[in-house]
What does this fold into?
Amino acid sequence: MKKLIVALVTLVFVALTPTQAQEFQEGVHYRVIGDTPSRAPEIIDFFSFYCGGCYQYAPFSDMLAEEFGSSFNKYHVNIVVPNAAIRDNIQSVWATAIVLGIDKQFKERVFQNHFVRNRMSNSVTELKQIMLDLGVEEEMYNRATNSMQARSLANRMSSLQRQFSVSRTPTYIVNRKYEMLPGGFNNSSNFFEDYLRLARYLVAKDF
It folds into this structure.
């Protein structure tokens, strides 16, 4: 009998934990931004290297990348930047890092420079130098940044930023239909885990 009571208490406790008890609500935990979902599950992380919040959310983005693999895309925006030269070129720089296959290392190095060492990159030349420091040869860099693949990817980032009216970072768009809302988790004791559960829930809504 004692074991049964303990088991029942355990079940009640589990059922009443915030992540299990709450039902994800439109307007609270997410908002609908489109009528037609993507053809396949998709999560887009719109971020900026010049956004302190994006640096803080980097572990969460890594969780999404690990769980959703190729369904997860990390796109740079041309807002939250230090100057016009960066604004006009930052998406191309990030696309170049992706084409070169060094996007993860590049992201970590830039974030470390900006928010740990307080050394902001104020020009494309400085960002390029980071790639060279990571072992990319200049000829490889030039070939990648001028490639059709990089130009197409940069254009896609810009187009989707406009399509979803991204005005803050980080912004997470799921299935091109839902925007995740962090404010719905103000009382969460494990925000990233709860936010990940929301991502799973939204991804599965249309598939």
